[in-house]
Amino acid sequence: MDRKYVPAYKGLAESLYECAKKRIEEGLLNRASHCLLKAIRVIDELRKHVVSKQLKWVLKLVADLNQHFYMISDSIIYESHSKNEMDGDFEILFDSIFKSSNQELSFKNGFELKIHFLKLAIDSYEKLIEIEPNQSDHWYDLGCTQSHLKLISPSSSSECLNSFRNAIRMKPMDHRYWTAYGCNVPNDQLLIKQHCFVRSLQCNEKNNHVAWNCCGYLYLETNQIELSKLCFLQSQSSNPSTNAHSWIGLGLLNLKIDISNALQISSSNFKHATLIKPNQFDSNFNLAFVNYQLGRHHDAIHPLRKCLQMRNSDRNSWNLLGLCLEQLGNLQESLEAFRKANVKGNIARLYLKLNQFENVITTLESSSNHDELSDTQFLHLLQAKCNLNQNDVNLKKMIDEFSNRNLNQQLIVELGKLYYGMNRLQDAKKQFENAIKISNDQIDAHLSYASLASLSSSTLPNALKVLNHAICKFPNFDSKLIHLQVKILIMNDQFDQAKFKLMNAIRMYPWMGSLWTQFAQIQSLQKDYKISISNHHELKLHWIKQVGEKTIKSTCSSLYSHIASQLLQKSFSKMAIVTFQNDPLQYKQRMKVLAQLYYEMGMAPKYHSVVPTLQYALRMAQHALRFDPSDLTIRELVAAISVAISKLDSDLVKECNVVLDKLTSVNLEWRDLEIVNLTRSDGNAQLSLIKNLMGKMNDQMDAQFMCVIANVMVDRRNKMIEAAIKKKSTWQTVLTAGDVFTGHRILKAARLCYLHVVNQVPSDLLFIVHLKIALVDLFLASTQDPNVGLDYVEMLKEGLVHVEQALLRNNESAAAYLIAGKLLLASELAENAKYALQKAIQLDPRQPLANLTLYKIYYAAQNWTLAEQHLWAEHEIQPRDGFLLYLLAVFALESNAHAEAIKLAQKSIRLDPSGKGWSVLEKLKSVWDPAKKVQQATTGGTSQQVKKNQKKK
């Protein structure tokens, strides 16, 4: 290179340096790293051609460049280097850099690159000081670099304080030197820190926001709240546009103040800091932490992702991300985050939730001995071993020894639950009582004690006493306490008190559908309770058993319905104003929440305006879906509301909705919405809708076809569909009609539509059409309706032909293999069905209904082990399905695992209060009632009881 190009290369290196600084401020660390590496390459080329006079600015630029690598993680530096590795330039560049400092670096061996770059910067600053020893800025830059090296490598020797002293001695009125010196003074020398910050403010009081912030943090650390607040406010006034640290300080300060809305105020402070500097680590992490404490787990994810972009190896960020994902139900992603954070306790707890007990033991026993485990981790280990083998004598000794430790209240409650699972009820009761004695302010302890006491009729009054105390003690509402209290009151035949308790809860929280469901159940039980007073106890137990076997019709009075509607309307306006205040970006979430609330109101017992309310809920959900079509929870809500409006609550339609949700690939158009409204109406309203529809549609033939659909929906005259098809309507209309008929269980008409368009649709839709025909054939064969007039054996054969055609076009569809497995099972080809269902699970382990169908096959073959295994697998896919929990409870009951059966049955009832979980509890009542056990052991039971038992059998 000719020396005349040295100024040009200098300008290029400086431009790259400025560009890198700007990219770091913007948070674009990959681009910043690339610019810094390019600049170093240019400087390395300049070194060969500069004269001694130019050496000063070369050393200064090299030092500044290397110092800025402190803000970039090693992985990003290595990634920037790897992208340019093809040219070979950067490998030569790094060889030349580290050769100058007698250091070797291998990118693939995991060295901390930042430490090496900072050491290079220190070498350059020291050489620069040798040339200009009286330049104070050189000493200041050297001190800052030494301070950065000390932070990331505590073992390194640091002389930053000496460097700052030299800078202050040369230029004592520069406020930057005093601030930097104060920040690096050891934390136990608070007076020296304060002195340095005060001297910095004396040098420059107006434009010295950094010193004001340092004073604020210092006073905050010593709990001088008022002084700290004054410093942060002064810092904001001195630099309001780019001063994010003052807002972070105010957020931390508000967390220390004992006020009711401290978390909300802190959250707004941290959010303001992220708006000023979106890519600052501290503000994003604190915002995520406060959102997690407020229960806004979804809002905490985005700032945590930003934190990990800046510091990919930060364990606290990974751990907090794992906690948020765990609360949102993303257990696998949460597990990966905990692994990166290397937090054994959280990893073990998550394995425990996933029922992977062997992994829990492997994770926790990787330590050399049990003494290294914390109490919480040791309890997780005991829980895992207990689930694998309850009867181990050594395990029981370990649990008893653990109970003698000085445990906190939460661990005592968990230990009581462990005893409860081992059928050691007296030990469990003792632990729950100890937890309540330690502190009276934990809901879980009261709830666990009351749940245990409710198992026996003799201890029901004590359980009610504990629950009443807990409800009065805790200001925050907990639905579990109310549900258990009402259940105990029902068992004592105190229906009026149970209704009174529920109505008080509904007045406060009217959008909770579980409260309305339990209220409807009480009304139904009370109605049948009054039939026969003399035999009321047996009749009540009979109705509790029969709750899951028939639909409960509400007997709410018009007064209750009127009060409920008023309360719900008030709650909607409150949710719209309070929850989404000053947050226009949350419009989608607002629509979703309002849709859920209106859905709950429409499903309330005997609500007087069901159809309009549910239609409004559907509109809200569709608005939310337009903002984010990929949100599966909104799609599920739309499907639930549509099913509620159409009053399709059979298991057949449930399976249809689950499978069709996998198949649907066509977006909703306005015509589809009109068809849905058309099919929901009746009488004069339907005629007006037909007129509006005919006015909107350009194709008159299609409009006539829609009229035919409307008539078929009313009187089910299937011959009309054949005549309508012959009118040469478009295939899009006929296909839409088929979907409408399928949703309304007019299966024969739907099959005619699909068969008509199978030769007309484009090739990319043939897979879906063949699969829909196979699905309709499966539903028709499953109904076995003699009025349909079809040969069901031939129907199954034709369904298999169509699903085979679908698989020829796409053999990687789990839904197709699921339908094939169901058709083969209905054709009594169990082995072939097993292969198809296993193939579906192989393609998509989260495919609904596949494991449930395999469970039916193995259960019929009396292979109990595999049947239970696939039932648990289906439960992992659909954890909110109460019927699956009921089946698992039956399995546990037949295996004499009574404690597990009670847990599963209670979960089933919580998810589906009208389900069959009550029948399992009824069967277990004799097992868990101590009074009945004693009576049977001493007298063998009276003859009257024997006769009753024989009648029941």
From TrEMBL:
rRNA processing found in the keyword field: no
TPR repeats: 409-442, 814-847
Record InterPro entries: Ski3/TTC37, TPR-like_helical_dom_sf, TPR_rpt
GO biological process, one term: RNA catabolic process
Coiled-coil segments: none
GO annotation, cellular component aspect: Ski complex
Keyword annotations of the record: Repeat, TPR repeat
Name of the protein in question: Tetratricopeptide repeat protein 37
Origin species: Acrasis kona
